[in-house]
């Protein structure tokens, strides 16, 4: 549940939060560079995570209103398999 909450609230090791607290200089997603690196970008729209999103949620993109309907275990699995938090922490 902790990983789910961190992802949804963006209080995590993603670049947007790390930039806000002075631990990183670039808030953008390390996968696509197109959007700020937030939980919403990772879960819903990052184009480099489409295949994993399809595998996990059976959709290439998610709408904001769909995020609340996701199973916390699926979100945690998606984040672990994306290695997003590992990339952001480097």
Comma- or semicolon-separated keywords:
90 residues; mainly alpha
Helices and strands, with pairings:
Blueprint: H1 2-9, H2 15-20, H3 39-45, H4 50-57, H5 72-82, H6 84-89
Helix pairs in contact: 1-5, 4-5
Structure description:
There is one protein chain. The protein is mostly helical. It has helices spanning 2-9, 15-20, 39-45, 50-57, 72-82, 84-89. The two termini are 23 Å apart. The mean pLDDT is 84.
Structural class given helices, strands, pairing?
A: mainly alpha
Count the helices. How many? 6
- Overall tally of structural domains: 1
State the distance separating the first and last CA atoms: 23 Å
The coarse silhouette is globular
Low-confidence stretches: none
Q: Tell me the series of helices and strands, N- to C-terminal.
A: HHHHHH
Summarize the structure.
The protein has six helices and no strands. The protein has helices at 2-9, 15-20, 39-45, 50-57, 72-82, 84-89.
């Amino acid at each position: 549940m902790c990983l789910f909450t961190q992802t949804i609230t963006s209080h995590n090791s993603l670049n947007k939060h790390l930039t806000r607290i002075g631990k990183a200089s670039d808030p953008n997603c390390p996968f696509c560079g197109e959007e700020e690196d937030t939980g919403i970008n990772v879960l819903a729209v990052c184009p480099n995570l489409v295949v994993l999103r399809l595998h996990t949620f059976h959709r290439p993109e998610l709408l904001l209103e769909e995020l609340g309907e996701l199973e916390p275990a699926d979100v945690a699995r998606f984040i672990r398999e994306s290695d997003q938090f590992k990339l952001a922490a480097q």
